[in-house]
Design goal:
The protein has 331 residues and is α+β, with helices and mostly antiparallel strands. The chain has a domain at 109-326: Thrombin, subunit H. It contains 8 helices and 15 strands. The chain has helices spanning 4-7, 15-33, 80-89, 98-110, 146-149, 222-225, 254-258, 318-326, and strands at residues 52-54, 64-69, 74-78, 113-119, 127-136, 141-144, 159-164, 171-181, 186-191, 213-218, 230-241, 263-268, 279-282, 288-295, 311-316. The longest helix is centred in the N-terminal third of the chain and has 19 residues, at 15-33.
């Protein structure tokens, strides 16, 4: 290497001096390359919050962690895992879901169910399973829909019966009409023989809130599936008037004008023929809040099974109590 001083006409340096300078330059270059940049000053925190350092400490309940601040203070916090554990212990994360209690509710309801049959010797089909009913009050009275037992003037006389599916061989009983309410599509019947376990009716006159988890249990498609109780689940989607608004006056008649107005349950729930008269009950407790009585037909009656709408309707249980009171029957 040629020293820069020599290029400017300066006298050449002695070899030992040149070697010392070379070593000095090399050391400085190495020191520069390995020099570390100074640490940045810490950015001040807003509101002069103290910087804390986690330092777990055993002892406090619910797994609290002790944290020491820079100023010597100790701050106790709850870790996320501890909060979830404590919340679950105190039930803050919710109670037992309705779906978990549903099997118990279904088992209770099944003990109160009967299949409503009609027997007309002169009819083309002498006997049929018309719908579902359930016991109330003293266990000797059955509630079902009026349209389940209704007979038009041109139909032959019929006898009403009940099938109790409590065993492999259903028990047959006789039924007698006690009181009917066509306006509310309800019928109160008297059951022969020993009492059946009654349902627990909703004690309030008010209706349950929208979004409440509910279920129905009955005998859908009884002629096809047999006397086997089947359960459908859903929610209360609305409290709607029992009469839909009519598009114009041509659809109004005397019967429609005389029909009393009241609120019924609209359900997000699929029901089938045979479910009429089934108890509508709370999924978590089995308390009966109404009687299923209708379903919305999506296209045609012939396709109600293959193409259900998933929208059903039920009469509130307050009208069950009113009908039983008119007949002096405890409910």
């Amino acid at each position: 290497m040629v020293p820069r001083a020599a290029c400017r006409g300066a006298p050449a340096a002695r070899p030992e001096v040149a070697g010392a300078l070379d070593r000095l330059v090399r050391r400085r270059i190495r020191a520069h390359l390995h020099r570390r940049a100074p640490a940045r000053p810490a950015r001040p925190q807003p509101h002069a919050l103290a910087t804390v350092h986690a330092r777990p400490r055993a002892g406090p309940p619910f797994g609290r962690d002790a944290i020491a601040a820079d100023d010597g203070r100790q701050v106790t916090v709850l870790s996320r895992r501890t909060w979830l554990t404590g919340a679950a212990a105190f039930g803050l994360l919710g109670t037992k879901p309705a779906s978990a209690a549903l099997p118990e509710s279904v088992a209770k309801i099944k003990r109160s169910l009967v299949g409503i049959t009609t027997f007309a010797p002169a009819a083309a089909i002498s006997q049929r399973l018309a719908g579902t009913g359930f016991a109330i009050g003293d266990g000797r009275h059955i509630i079902t829909n009026y349209h389940v037992i209704q007979r038009t003037p041109d139909q032959p006389p019929q006898q009403l019966g009940a099938l109790l599916p409590q065993s492999l061989e259903p028990e047959r009983r006789e039924l007698q009409i006690v009181k009917i309410s066509p306006a509310h599509d309800l019928a109160l019947l008297r059951l022969s023989g020993p009492p059946v376990t009654p349902v627990a009716l909703w004690p309030e006159t008010s209706m349950v809130d929208d979004g409440t988890a509910v279920a129905i249990t009955g005998f859908p498609l009884g002629a096809v599936l047999g006397l086997v109780p089947a359960t459908q689940t859903g929610i209360v989607s609305a409290q709607t008037p029992n009469i839909s608004p009519q598009p114009n006056s041509r659809f109004l008649d005397a019967n429609l004008l005389r029909t009393p107005r009241f609120s019924i349950y609209q359900l997000d729930l699929t029901a089938y023929p045979g479910h009429s008269g089934s108890p509508l009950y709370l999924a978590d407790t089995g308390v009966v809040i109404g009687v299923l009585n209708a379903t919305l037909i999506k296209s045609t009656k012939e396709r109600v099974i293959s193409d259900p709408s998933g929208i059903s309707y039920a009469v509130p249980s307050a009208f069950i109590r009113d009908l039983a009171a008119l007949a002096s029957v405890p409910a």
